[in-house]
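Support request from a user on the community tier.

User writes: "When I paste my structure tokens into the form, the page sometimes reloads and wipes my input. The last time it worked, I copied everything first. Here is what I submitted, just in case something in the input itself triggers the reload:"
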């Protein structure tokens, strides 16, 4: 079978929304279609329980009581941009937020209809893509002049949200310079001002200062007769900590996936969240070690007595953190078994009980539940000494996904 350039990109997991339509992508395959009993087995995969996401969304809606802009940047926090985008759209989400224009285009290509905001960088040459795919753009640079000029030449308008830096020191027009910028943007006929936003530092005392700066700016703009659209500032952390500043819209991210943004909010469990994702693999081999036998490169683990181990076909290339060894464990047949050796690109090892009835092909849970036991991303993050965000976002986007 001929292997084309398009096949390469599809096999590599690279989406080319500018080149491939959905119809063309469906025709372009590296391998012929296989029947159910011919399809290769999954050795490592992700399972998504989207009803848990619906539960989490409902809890956020009950508390916020304002429109929801769901944050699905970075492959929906490792959960799958397409799967999550489609699902939230079907649940009547008010808007979606991404941080790359390509993500927004991919969502439109698969049929997502709700408003989408690209919170990522603006390049004026992308004006035609913003208008063609009906994508709103976060703006805060002088390039709005060229953006407006390009849109006007096409006889189009571009929807924008102005982003204000009230103290985060990252993206956004500095708040003390922003009023002039807002006036410029409002005067550009080819721009349609839909909203104004800021990002809080999640320092409780300084957040109050940031909100005062933001709201004072909004009042000044209103006094000049400028309609700003929806005001939005709060992420998941703000939803957990404050009811006073929900404004016109909130931007939850990690809450929707079933996790909290900090240890403090985990303990409070304000939303009774349900994790959406499970990360699973299979036992690839079961073997016995004699005293003195070693495991993995550089003989990092040496048996001092007779031991039984299982080798799993999962490693750091799949997103499992290397530093979890020595503290971490996995679930097999509802029991926890500790990690030994080292995490390599495609394998890890666990120590079994000598009388364990574990066989090749048995399911192993790296994140999720099995029997009466469960392993959360929070727990794995503590073992690896990273944040829960890094655990979820670090999962390989090429891992196959199952909806359960």
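"...and here is what came back when it finally went through:"
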């Amino acid at each position: 079978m001929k292997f084309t350039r398009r096949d390469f990109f599809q096999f590599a997991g690279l989406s080319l929304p500018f080149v491939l339509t959905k119809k063309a992508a469906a025709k372009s395959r590296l391998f012929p279609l296989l029947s159910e009993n011919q399809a290769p087995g999954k050795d490592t995969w992700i399972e998504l329980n989207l009803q848990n996401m619906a539960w989490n969304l409902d809890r956020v809606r009950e508390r916020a009581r304002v429109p929801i802009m769901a944050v699905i940047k970075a492959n929906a926090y490792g959960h799958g941009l397409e799967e999550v985008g489609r699902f939230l759209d079907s649940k009547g989400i008010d808007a979606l937020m991404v941080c790359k224009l390509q993500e927004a285009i991919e969502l439109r290509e698969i049929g997502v209809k709700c408003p989408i905001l690209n919170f990522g960088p603006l390049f004026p040459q992308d004006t035609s893509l913003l208008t063609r795919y009906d994508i709103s753009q976060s703006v805060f640079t002088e390039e709005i002049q060229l953006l407006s000029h390009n849109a006007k030449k096409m006889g189009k308008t571009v929807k924008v949200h102005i982003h204000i830096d009230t103290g985060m020191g990252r993206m956004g027009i500095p708040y003390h310079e922003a009023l002039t910028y807002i006036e410029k943007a409002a005067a550009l006929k080819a721009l349609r001002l839909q909203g104004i936003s800021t990002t809080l530092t999640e320092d409780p005392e300084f957040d109050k200062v940031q909100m005062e700066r933001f709201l004072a700016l909004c009042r000044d703009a209103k006094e000049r007769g400028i309609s700003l659209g929806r005001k939005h500032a709060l992420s998941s952390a703000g939803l957990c900590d404050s009811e006073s500043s929900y404004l016109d819209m909130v931007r939850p991210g990690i809450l929707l996936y079933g996790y909290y943004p900090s240890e403090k909010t985990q303990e409070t469990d304000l939303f009774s969240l349900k994790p959406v994702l499970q990360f699973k693999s299979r036992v690839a081999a079961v073997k016995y070690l004699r005293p003195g036998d070693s495991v993995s490169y550089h003989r990092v683990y040496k048996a001092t007595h007779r031991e039984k181990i299982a080798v799993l076909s999962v490693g750091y290339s799949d997103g499992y953190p290397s530093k979890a060894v020595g503290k971490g464990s996995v679930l097999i047949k509802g029991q926890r078994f500790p990690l030994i050796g080292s995490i390599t690109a495609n394998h890890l090892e666990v120590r079994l009980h000598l009388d364990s009835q574990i066989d090749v092909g048995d399911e192993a849970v790296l994140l999720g539940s099995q029997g009466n036991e469960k392993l959360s991303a929070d727990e794995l993050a503590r073992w690896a000494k990273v944040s829960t965000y890094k655990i979820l976002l670090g999962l390989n986007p090429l891992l196959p996904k199952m909806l359960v």
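Agent notes: The reload is a front-end session timeout and is unrelated to the input. Confidence is low (pLDDT under 50) at residues 1-36. The two ends are 34 Å apart (CA to CA). Escalated to web team.
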